[in-house]
Specification:
Rossmann fold, globular, 7-stranded mixed sheet, alpha/beta, about 675 residues
Length: about 675
């Protein structure tokens, strides 16, 4: 199956504008509620609903029973009321009869215990019985509804690996061995890659190779075995998706998607994104996060990057509180619209929610919805109707793309997996918080960022950030060096380039793969204990990590002034061809970090879409061949004035030079006299 880059444009063309709606689960309600549902959907401006995600048991109550009549009625009802459907294959949660009939398809944990049904995703992704049943159900639905006029998009399963990212059963072990044999070709190559000379682990027969199940107490499994297990497990979920997507491709003409989950560690979404017609995402605020709106923007930028800059779709978020966090915080008034339009600003072709009507029963009964338990006489419903009006007013934006930013942050799932394996110098070092810190600094300056695969095309960016990318292969390291040589500015942080793709240390001094590019040679890592800090030569302080290092061709910007590595360089810059390669070998304090970011943006000549905005106010520009739209989102509790000229779409008013953005307000301005034909950075 080959991705159709224009898949989302096909959907919005059918809708006549941006998508609005969410998961609709009519099987949870008596039929008399359905008519009320469509009436309220029309009132709110809903034009797209996802149907059937968790309806396997209703569609197929038993192995030999097939009851699709209710779904016929739902799709007909949606079409009658001009509401389009994203039709799910219903395979996200096998019914109890399936795991009763096929007990070997149930999930097995690391200790060998078989998990029971009664929740969702209680299955092994490698199970041949599961794959056959999923393909059969997807095929039945495709044949029945391929030509239904309501269906504009197909939705395969739901949130792959959300609850079953690894299965350690015998079927998984067999599949893992086959995967390894295809990857390495021979046991000799496997033993070399896994470094099995250590701890007497040499394998003489494929049957001896197992998943990294629970090992002896207080010990560590082979790290390359663990890394390959993460690769294999991610690939098994992708194979399970393709098992259904290939069936759909034989029958349907509509685009096909499945919903991602932002920065979800178990799945390599770079690989997944190659096989979906529409990149779609589920994004939920984390109540304990101090800057949840920033994380929303970061998630949206990741999805746009996975879509290679093409339009994508926010498949799920919440109108208010969720149900699955320790403390489920309700959204503040206006926050639902701000979050929704953040995603639209950053490339989503609409805003969908989980779910349409709040459930009366089940594990998600306290999860917010477009129609809350309180009904339509509620703040949430009034905001739902208002948001529908906003998205309708933004119909002209559909099909446009986000102006390409000048900054890219390298993000590789495999480097993430490798960096967080056990027996490393410090458990406080991970690419995820490092990427967040760099993104946060850019977001606070209204500077956008893409995320880049280490093998991705970096041309067109002015600044590339490589945050704790512990694992890198030779090709990616060479590509980064060549990009800098052509004039780019790269900044690489500590614990990057340390190992190759087999998790083997690159000998000769750290940072291994990037040693020549950075002009730095590190002899020894000296991580710091929690709460410890050292002084730097510029008077700032640093935490977490230090190093015994020396420059070779680089210039030291700051050095350690105290601690065990005093005198060693902490931050360096190296001329490489026409570009610059910066190295940050420690965790800088906030002021020093902010100063460094400003220096790098200045050197790279990267500026915000709009000058002079205070922190907490986003400015993002979308554009097509003829028009540009400036999205402004005010996350602060103060009014701000923005220098812009054009027509503000949400209020339908002309803007002659300055726009007042109220506290918590959102504006979208079709700009006047902007050179939209100018090339992006």
């Amino acid at each position: 199956m080959t991705r159709r880059p224009q898949g989302m444009q096909e959907v919005t063309a059918r809708l006549g504008g941006l998508a609005y709606g969410g998961d609709y689960n009519p099987e949870q309600w008596p039929r008399e509620v359905w008519l009320d549902d469509v009436r309220l959907m029309r009132e709110a401006g809903v034009n797209l609903v996802t149907v059937g995600v968790f309806s396997w048991a209703r569609l197929q109550p038993g192995p030999d029973r097939w009851e699709p009549g209710w779904l016929d009625d739902v799709l007909d009802l949606m079409h009658e009321h001009e509401i389009a459907v994203d039709l799910a294959t219903a395979t996200a949660s096998p019914p109890p009869w399936f795991t009763t009939r096929f007990p070997a398809a149930a999930l097995v944990d690391e200790s060998g215990a078989r998990r029971g049904h009664g929740a969702r995703q209680a299955y092994c992704p490698s199970s041949s019985d599961l794959r056959a049943a999923c393909a059969d159900l997807a095929g039945r639905l495709a044949q029945r509804y391929a030509e239904h006029p309501a269906v504009v998009l197909w939705h395969v399963s739901n949130e792959y690996a959300c609850h079953n990212w690894h299965c350690y059963c015998d079927a998984s072990a067999t599949a893992f061995r086959a995967w390894l044999e295809a990857r390495y070709g021979s046991l000799e190559a496997l033993n070399q890659a896994w470094g099995t000379a250590f701890w007497s682990q040499g394998y003489g027969d494929w049957a001896e190779v197992l998943p990294p199940r629970a090992v002896s107490y207080n010990s560590f499994a082979n790290p390359t075995q663990q890394l390959d297990w993460w690769r294999f497990s991610s690939g098994e979920h992708l194979a399970l998706y393709r098992n259904e997507a290939d069936v759909l491709a034989a029958h349907v003409t509509q685009p096909v998607t499945t919903n991602f989950m932002s920065f979800f560690k178990p799945l390599d979404y770079w690989e997944f994104a190659e096989h979906v017609d529409v990149v779609s995402n589920d994004d939920y605020l984390i109540g304990a996060d101090p800057r949840p709106d920033e994380l929303t923007a970061m998630s949206a930028d990741l999805m746009r990057s996975l879509a290679a800059g093409d339009p994508w779709l926010l498949m799920e978020h919440s109108t208010s509180a969720v149900n699955w966090q320790p403390h489920n915080v309700a959204k503040a008034p206006g926050q639902m619209a701000r979050n929704s339009l953040q995603h639209v600003a950053r490339g989503s072709e609409g805003a969908l929610f989980f779910q349409w009507r709040a459930s009366r029963a089940g594990a998600e009964k306290f999860h917010s919805a477009l129609v809350p338990h309180a009904g339509t006489d509620s703040r949430v419903w009034r905001e739902v109707v208002e948001l529908g009006g906003h998205l309708k007013a933004l119909a002209e934006v559909a099909g446009s793309t986000v102006e390409r930013p000048g900054v890219a942050i390298v993000h590789d799932w495999q480097a993430w997996w490798g960096a967080e394996l056990d027996s490393h110098p410090s458990r406080d070092v991970s690419p995820a918080p490092q990427a967040r810190r760099w993104y946060s600094a850019l977001w606070s300056r209204s500077v956008g960022a893409d995320f880049a695969h280490p093998h991705g095309d970096l041309d067109g960016y002015r600044l590339v950030v490589v945050p704790c990318q512990y694992l890198v292969d030779d090709a990616a390291a060479a590509a980064l060096a060549a990009w800098v040589e052509r004039g780019g500015i790269a900044v690489v942080t500590y614990f990057s380039g340390i190992v190759d793709e087999h998790d083997h240390v690159r000998l000769g001094g750290y940072p291994g793969a990037h040693r020549d590019l950075l002009g730095v040679r590190i002899e020894e890592f000296v991580p710091l204990l929690p709460g410890s800090a050292v002084e730097l030569s510029d008077g700032s302080r640093a935490t977490t990590w230090t190093e015994h290092a020396r420059t070779t061709t680089a210039e030291a910007v700051t050095t350690y002034a105290s601690g065990p590595t005093a005198g060693s360089p902490a931050v360096t810059v190296n001329r490489h061809g026409r570009g610059q390669a910066w190295y940050v070998g420690t965790e800088l304090d906030d002021d020093a970090f902010a100063s460094l970011v400003d220096t790098l943006l200045g050197a790279a000549d990267v500026v915000a879409p709009l000058a002079g905005l205070p922190p907490g106010v986003e400015a993002v520009r979308r554009r097509d061949d003829a028009t540009s739209w400036l999205f402004l989102v005010n996350h602060t509790d103060a009014s701000v004035e923005v220098p812009v000229e054009g027509h503000e779409l949400l209020g339908d008013l002309a803007v002659a030079g300055r726009l007042t953005l109220r506290p918590g307000g959102v504006a979208v301005v079709r700009e006047t006299d902007r050179d939209v034909g100018a090339s992006s950075p």
